[in-house]
Amino acid sequence: MGRINTNVQSLIAQRVLTSNQKSLAQSLERLSTGLKISSGKDDPAGLIASENLRSEIKGTNQAIANATRADQVINIAEGGLGEVSSLLTELQGLVTSSASTAGISAAERQANQLQVDSILQTIDRIASATSFQGIKLLNGNFDFKTSNVNTGISDYKVNAAKYSGGSLNVDVLVTGSAQQGGLFLSFGAASIDTAAGSQFTIEVGGALGTRQFTFSSSTSLTNIAGAINTFTTVLGVQATVSGTGIKLASTKFGRSQYASIKVVDDGGITGSANMGIYDLNATNTSAAATPRRSTYIAATNTISDFGKDIQATVNGILATSDGKTARINTDFLDVEVTLGNTASQTLGPVGTHAFTITGGGADFALGGQVNISSKVSIGIQAVSASVLGNSNIGRLGSLSAGQVNNLVTGNVEQAQQIIAESIAQVSSLRGRLGAFQSNTVGATIRSLGVAVENSTAAQSVIRDADFATETAGLTRSQILVNASTQVLGLANQSPQAVLSLLQG
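^ thats the sequence. predicted structure below, dont judge the formating
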């Protein structure tokens, strides 16, 4: 081979040297940066996957920070609620003390009222002062806002709601009416007529207790009902005169409520042949249903009738119920609706809509993606004196001086019922917030932490350099570059041999 114009061996050596130098440079870059992918040319598909994972990791880390912030917010709210609970317990003691009219002076009762006023003011102050970065937590700021509340709704509570758009309609469909436990006592006259020297003795019972009553001959039905109603608050049963009989009905609705009667001594009672104990008429609860359950002389064992819980759906979801209250608790909607007497016993929808949620609630983004699935919403109702309690028994503010349930001249029994309801409401709110912290926030932090670990590991496999592999590659590239350099030198010297032909 005697060509000197084109040195093919040199060109081959140069190409191989360039390739080896490129491989060496790549190994040096990966070892110095710690990355296997520094730009799109290194691995286009890997770069796309890596960038998507980096974005998810960043969003998930922020979601963990949001969940931690949510936990801090709830902790502050819980602190305020705990103090309100303690104050309500103090109120309970003051009311009980003031109920003993014979053992407490007017001055002491007045002093108790001053304490009540101070406690109510403190509750209002806590409700308005408990805040996080200036955002008030217990004044209703995070309660859900509603509108167009149907008149058939006596009370309602929105605990959580997630929805897109400006509002969410809440629809209630009654499929089974709520009922009281009730019995009808027929006497066939406006008064009872017992045998000479005998008395009519009965034992009336309800969900709260039982009481025995004894009536003599000629006692009017009005007086019998009045005697029973004197103990309504300890029986849970109310008596109403209806024609020539008395209707006994539980004061509340639901399957846990009942009315019962046991005849201890019928006293030889006489009158109409239809006298006795009946169930209430299904369509007219002021009248008796046939057939008769029992005669008085045969009612030596307790005869009872239990009420029924309402059956309803809320936004198409079967509700759990208690008396006249229906509730659903899903990931998107947690509402509790209490119907009035008429609405709870009328089958069909409660108006066009029961009410409309228009905003409010405390929203927390607990996922890496900003969408409705990642959002968690919880309602924090106000705990001020004007809100605690309910529309049926009254509000906590009615215990203040000059109000209807004050301790000096007001209804102390009603005051105690209001305090009990307020304690139940605050306890329920604390329970919901505690469950939110434990089951939602705590679980979210733990699950997102695992997600960050796994995503980071996946991203590392795709993007990070393997130092063992790259070090081996570096050594190989260094050796090949040295070898290629020497070979190139030899290739460049080979044309010199052709010159010997000219010299010969």
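The first strand starts at residue 131 and ends at 132.
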